[in-house]
Write a structure and sequence with these properties.
about 425 residues, alpha/beta, FAD/NAD(P)-binding domain, five-stranded parallel β-sheet, 9 helices, 27 strands, about 35% strand
Length: about 425
């Protein structure tokens, strides 16, 4: 089968990219999704808080996904469900296998990577102790509870204060479980401030920062978990252990962008984000291959995923119309003051079509700061930030007018300075 555009992943990023590409005039699009329905992780996120930016109203995860599924349903986009991508070649042959169509080779002129991310497992963080039942990633527990209808435990310890862990602390409490503690290795939470307030403080669930699990006990099922305080080197401090009798341990220890397919096709991957390195069009190091959403870098709000993926969809259609651009004048975005990365990583000012959103995260909690965006030696944006934290993504808008006012540009730089 031949398509102009193949999108890998039918979650919020893939749906938004497909819808935007169709609206931009592309009429040969295929979404490949490994699950049995579209919507991705949103289908199990039955709490509200979605859509405030994008739809200007508060929705649950399934409601938010449903809106995009309806939009795509009104187009002629082909959808392959229950289909696993085996391999993508650098010349954009997408090899898939599905129960309905068997093995297929989808030949694409452009590809959008929208595979999302996966959770860190117990094996990835190497917690000592026995290996009983009752240890779940927070996302797996969320699926069991919200979709399958299984109660995963009654006395719960949660390791990690990422957003899924915080939301599951509230969800388990509402289902009648007792959440004993949320332990966080770092000296700050990895989740949104609103989730700490609504999911922990409102239910009197203690959050212990700079703590980690040092032992899991139990033969058939978890019977107890021991946590301990950690020092600046993140190693447990002897004598600070606290034991909890519990039957369940949930792990919310970070998300990893799902980039095995990207690596396999030769896309350059950032060592900081674990996602592809992209330019102003969200194009990867392979021309005609774009990336958006959590496969690119982990977002805190799905609204931003949708915005980013829509931009990738429009960029893919421009690529299909124009082909590869010849001579590129890439300007890497440099940064200092505690910023860990930026998306995009570089910009060619001549190729910027719309106003550009630069997204970044900082490496630690900072207070009373000013973020400045420099074009050459001129600060074109200056924003006061009372508090910045790693759990909340920052963004700056770079307009076409700003770039037009700086011809011959050779430096784009972001700083975080004391206010």
């Amino acid at each position: 089968m031949k398509y102009e555009l193949v999108i890998i992943g039918g979650g919020p990023a893939g749906l938004s990219a497909a819808n935007a590409a169709w609206e931009a005039g592309c009429r040969s699009i295929c979404i490949v999704e490994r699950d049995r329905e579209l919507g991705g992780i949103l289908n199990q996120c039955i709490h509200n808080g979605f859509g405030l930016h994008y739809f200007k109203e508060e929705l649950t995860g399934p409601e938010y996904a449903g809106r995009f599924i309806d939009m795509v349903g009104q187009t002629g986009v082909d959808v392959r469900l229950d289909a696993m991508v085996l391999d993508i070649t650098p010349d954009k042959h997408v090899h898939i296998v599905s129960s309905e169509g068997g093995y297929e080779d989808l030949e694409a002129k452009a590809v959008i990577l929208a595979m999302g991310c996966r959770e860190r497992t117990r094996g990835a963080i190497a917690i000592p102790g026995t290996r009983p039942a009752g240890v779940f990633t927070a996302g797996a527990a969320q699926r069991y509870l919200n979709i399958e209808g299984y109660m995963v435990g009654r006395r719960v310890v949660i390791l990690g204060s990422g957003d899924i862990g915080l939301i599951m602390a509230r969800r388990m409490t509402l289902e009648g479980a007792k959440v004993l503690v949320v332990a966080e290795l770092l000296p700050y939470s990895g989740g949104l401030k609103r989730n700490i307030v609504q999911c922990l403080n409102d239910f009197d669930i203690p959050l212990k920062l700079s703590h980690t699990v040092v032992n899991i006990e139990g033969k058939e099922r978890v019977s107890g978990v021991t946590i301990a305080e950690v020092g600046p080197d993140r190693k447990p401090i002897p004598g600070t252990e606290i034991h909890y009798d519990c039957d369940t341990l949930l792990l919310s220890c970070g998300l990893i962008p799902e980039n095995e397919l990207s690596r396999g096709m030769g896309v350059e991957i950032s060592p900081v984000t674990n996602g592809p390195v992209v330019d102003e069009s969200l194009q990867t190091s392979i021309p005609g291959v774009f990336a958006a959403g959590n496969v690119l870098h982990v977002h805190d709000l799905v609204d931003y995923v949708s915005e980013e993926a829509a931009a990738a969809g429009r960029a893919a259609v421009r690529y299909l119309a124009q082909g590869e651009t010849g001579e590129r004048h890439e300007i890497p975005i440099t940064f200092e003051g505690g910023i860990r990365y930026t998306v995009p990583a570089s910009i060619d000012p001549k190729l910027v079509q719309d106003d550009l959103v630069l997204r970044f995260r900082v490496g630690g909690v900072m207070k009373k700061r000013v973020v400045k965006l420099y074009l050459g030696d001129e600060a074109v944006v200056s924003r006061k930030r009372p508090v910045m934290a790693p759990g909340e993504m920052e963004e700056l808008k770079l307009t076409k007018d700003m770039l037009a006012a700086h011809p011959g540009l050779s430096r784009i730089h972001i700083t975080v300075e004391e206010a």
